[in-house]
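Posting for a labmate who doesn't have an account.
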Amino acid sequence: MSQDFQELQNEELTQALESLLLPRLKGILASRGKSHCMRVADLDSGLMVVLTRSLRQEVPEAQVFILNGNGQNTDNPDLYISSTKLIELRNPLPDGSLRPPLLVFLPSNLQTNAEDSFNVASFEEISLADVYQQLVQNLIQQIPTPLQGYVKEIFSYLTQQKWRWANPVAQARFLQTAVINEIAGDTLGAALYELGLVPDFHLFDEPTTTNLRIHKNLESMQKLTLNLEKSILGRVLDLELAEKLVQKRLTECLVEVGVEDPYLWTRQVVLNRKNWDISFDKWKFLEDICPDKISVEILGIGLNFVKNEEINQSLQCLIGQQVLVPKEQKKLKVEFKVDPHPCQIDGLDHFTVQIMTQDGCTVGGTKKVKGWKTKSSNKSVTLDKLDKFEFDEGWHFVRILPWTENDDPIPLAEPDNSSTLAQVKPYESELFYVLPDAEIDEEPPLRVIPQEISLEHAKLRLQFKAIAEHRDPNTVTLKDVVWAEKSSKNRSATQEVKSGSSFG
């Protein structure tokens, strides 16, 4: 980090959520008839206030309130309503006419004696539980394409591990924090405190180790947070950090801030510059967390290049590129080599072979290849049933990664980019274009073999061709003659040779 980090303000997240919820609630209110009652529960108090004001402005004919079970709110009294008044607004007017549709926001931890009067039997429940997931999906699209796949994998892993500080709300805050800090690899790593992890300024410096760093980060946070029977010093010692200074500084920070809520102390690592020396990229462990790096190189994927003479119109714009038409080619034979040999790599259990979109999303299933003991360092694997994959038209590639038995990634050796212009990593194939709905059924053009009415005519034609190409026509001479048997069917490639000859 070369500059100060900006912390996400609640108002900024509220604004992002309002942009998603306001159109949805406005549409619901506009579609409901008179006297229809609705309730929305468990939104943040600030968000409820913003939505109530905006909805009153956007749909002035509707009734929109926040329920206050403990008397009128002194900050925004016009927005709040008591349970008694709410029951009154639910019923028709004294003259029997129906009131406008009513929407009420119910705060969490609501305390009121009239809950039965606005339960789901009399009030339609409007669920907005998916709003944070929707915001996460929108924010992911703002991440640089090469990093999107890694962020999705981080969320998936933390969810699988049931890390409660990485729920959808935390994921949205994490992404929004990175956005307001000019989203990039270092700002994403710095924003990890929103997920209850230690900020890591170099998380994406070497993408092949990103998942391993996240796994180790979570493992460390579990030791610090969940070992309740141990002192703070005891928990830090359990990390087995190699550098005593980092160990000392981390202990001092945890004693000062506390360790039970990881969000509280991890945010101090970023917001207080004096704590940058204990960010996760400074943590070195006694047990080397990175196995020896290995090299994986894809040699081929069994696809042909579109040739210059291609006559199929759907392929002419892809001349010189590799193309996959799943309806025609249902298998890919992927060949790769590993250095050193798999049996010499400590901890290696298997490789994964995946088809990826250009933006880093997986397509179809993952093929596992167990480490092998045969002499060759090369391996072939077939990806089949490609016609069953849900391809979108566009550019794809094949990626091969090595893993331990516990599904921890093994770091891969990166090429020296200073000595080559190639952008393709050796463990990723060249890009190929997928045409999921195409059918290539044109027959290839037949090669026309010139025929002459006599041997002398053939000789003269070749001599004139030699003159046109500035060659000596006398070099065209008869060498031998080949006779082919005639058949009622097309001549085959195994026609019997009666006698040999040709021009030379």
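Reply:
Got it, the structure tokens are right above this. Residues 132-282 form one domain.
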